[in-house]
Design goal:
The protein has 11 helices and no strands. It has 243 residues and is mainly α.
């Protein structure tokens, strides 16, 4: 029986309190001044800012900081393996990022009139945290149900090294790198290959490079990776980028 073919167990939200307590990790970005400055914004305002400023990452990070704990508990109650649960946690937030881009804020609380069939006029600022939380949980549940988890041994993601928002923006930045820069960065960071091994691999593939060439390419790749990140993400995750 292969693990990736097993369905992911989902649990009703109301059963979360009945299960053993899940220890939610601390995410340093939630204490960053940029994120703290958004604490007075309503959920609707955060979503609107997120949708209207796609080149900035702080609004998605702020939403993550408000609601990561409920999503984390939901997933860790549904998935037994901590490694797979952390991986799924990151994948769910990646999915939530895409869904939030097109979310109709008024649709969270606007229900059509039973007689006229028309939706009432809604003030988006009246959206409560429970309404956004319910949407996040329902969307996360759907994502959990549809996700086939890879085997533990094939997962190279570490939650302690990159939180879901940071991982999302890193992946977006990686997609914009040249193929060689992307390959060398991934081999170094994901598979922990050194320059000698990477050079040997590239030579076997027909690209003649030296160990020094690989080190130079890696340095260029890192510089390009950071340059492609949103400025506010670079500031929020400055310590992680220095590792």
């Amino acid at each position: 029986m292969q693990l990736q073919n097993l369905p992911v167990q989902t649990l009703p939200v109301q059963t979360l309190k009945a299960r053993s307590v899940v220890r939610v990790p601390q995410f340093p970005e939630c204490q960053h001044p940029i994120i703290q400055a958004l604490s007075e914004e309503t959920d609707a305002q955060l979503i609107e800012l997120f949708q209207n400023h796609p080149t900035q990452g702080q609004y998605f990070v702020a939403i993550f900081c408000r609601y990561h704990s409920i999503i984390y508990r939901l997933i860790h109650q549904a998935v037994r393996s901590p490694v797979q649960a952390d991986y799924l946690f990151a994948m769910v937030w990646k999915h939530l990022h895409h869904q939030l881009q097109g979310l109709n804020i008024s649709g969270l609380i606007s229900q059509p009139d039973s007689e006229t069939g028309q939706s009432p006029t809604v003030n988006p600022d009246n959206i409560s945290s429970s309404q956004l939380q319910s949407w996040l949980v329902e969307t996360a549940q759907a994502c959990i149900t549809q996700t086939e988890l890879p085997p533990v041994e094939s997962i190279h993601y570490s939650l302690s090294e990159a939180s879901p928002p940071f991982l999302y923006y890193l992946e977006q930045s990686l997609e914009r790198l040249s193929p060689l820069h992307r390959l060398v960065v991934l081999m170094t960071q994901t598979f922990r290959w050194n320059a000698i091994r990477i050079a040997a691999y590239l030579q076997a593939e027909g690209t003649i490079v030296s160990e020094e060439d690989v080190k130079h390419t890696l340095s260029q790749g890192y510089q390009s990776l950071i340059a492609e990140l949103p400025d506010d993400i670079c500031e929020i995750y400055a310590l992680q980028l220095l590792r």
